[in-house]
Specification:
Elements: E1 2-5, E2 12-15, E3 19-25, E4 35-39, E5 45-49, E6 59-63, E7 68-75, E8 83-93, E9 96-99, E10 103-109, E11 114-118, E12 124-130, E13 135-144, E14 147-150, E15 168-173, E16 176-183, E17 195-203, E18 209-211, E19 215-216, E20 229-235, E21 238-243, E22 247-254, E23 257-260, E24 264-265, E25 278-280, E26 286-290, E27 293-300, E28 303-311, E29 323-327, E30 332-339, E31 341-350, E32 356-364, E33 374-379, E34 385-389, E35 398-402, E36 408-411, E37 418-420, E38 430-434
Parallel strand pairs: 3-36
Antiparallel strand pairs: 1-2, 3-38, 4-36, 4-37, 5-35, 6-7, 7-8, 8-9, 8-10, 11-12, 12-13, 13-14, 15-16, 16-17, 17-18, 17-19, 20-21, 21-22, 22-23, 22-24, 25-26, 26-27, 27-28, 29-30, 30-31, 31-32, 33-34, 34-35, 37-38
Amino acid sequence: MISIKGSSGGGEIEVVNGIVEKFKAYEDDISPNTFIKFVNRLNEANHQNIAAMDYACSSDAVILDDKRLFLACSAASSNPNRLKLYAAVLTIENGTIITGTRVLISEIVNRTGLEVAKLSSGKIYIQAINNSKSSTGYSICTVSGSEISSTEMAWDIQDYYSTNTMCAAVEVSSNKIVSAFPDTGDSSTVEGTGKPYVRILNVSGNGEIAKGSQLLIDSNEPLYSGNNAELIKISSTKALLLYGIVKGVVLSISGDIITKGTILTIDSAYMYGGKEGSCLLDNGKIAVAANKNLYILSVSGNAITIEKTYELPEKMNYTDSRKTVTQISTEHLLVSSSYQTNAVHGCLINITSGKVYGDVVEIIGNTSALTGYAFLTLKLKDERVFMLEAGGSNSGPYTQIINDAEVKIDIASDVIEGIATDKATKSMSGKAWYLK
């Protein structure tokens, strides 16, 4: 219940129920006891085509430091299963992306199935699928400024074969990687749909990799073209694998041995070629966007629990769409989703309550130059976010620098969503009350 005396800009307010948070003002200073509405600025972004990388069927990136990112993507070819894999350093200067000299990593990769992971040594691990060889391979890259050197792609992560594109990797401790990949598990099968497998990869100082034994995760989950997987580090001895329709399983690591926990079905929609549809939160829980919902998961021992399920708003809940999730502050998530056309929409959501702040906005407009989804979003320094999208014919990938991804409050002119209880300015946060 809330009792209000007065009107916007003044009066006495008695708050009984609701949530109080701190927000900065969108434009004008906001005085205490002022009716407010929520605003997001996700559509105020610097949109840029990285033309030097050509046609990007598949892309992934990691943050190197405050100003640099490492990008890998497949480039155009007359045969969609014989694409070239390139990498480049992206430097961010005043909201503009400067693309370093691209480096050829491999002559032949698949159109999807690509993972980039930053190692504690500072090197970069790239994992990719090669459909012509029905195999999964890796390369270790060294970055110096904007220059990249790499080892030759070694196509021997899996024991047997599969044409599927599932591909994920994460470093769990110093130069120890958990790798996920497709495998038929049958030496007599040259090609096949495959099932999800994992194994430990230990990276030496010279970039050589020693493999642990591979482990079948799910014999009941055949993988299909376009399916992907995500690996999230929980601790130095534990990771979470998301795959298939979306299923989740805890992986426990001891030396070079992986054991799996109980598999949990989280949603009925398949994970597609987009990356970062999940993220590890500051509180140790995991956020997963899939199908029409946002899930908050917790991990205890080898078990996964769905703690909360929030229905995504309209234009965010399109079935079979690619989604990304990024934590931008203690309580707030940025969720993006493709929506029917070649457009990407986004919204800001409260982790604890599921509150959607302000409107769902169109981050990327409908254009034939895009294939309709964001690959990933990465939180940069301050309130900025880097977003990477798929490219279209000879025109990708595309990027966004969202310069202000945090929730703001503004003086309500039509819709009243809450009340300021402190003064708020563009540079100073003030408390505001709102209903759940």
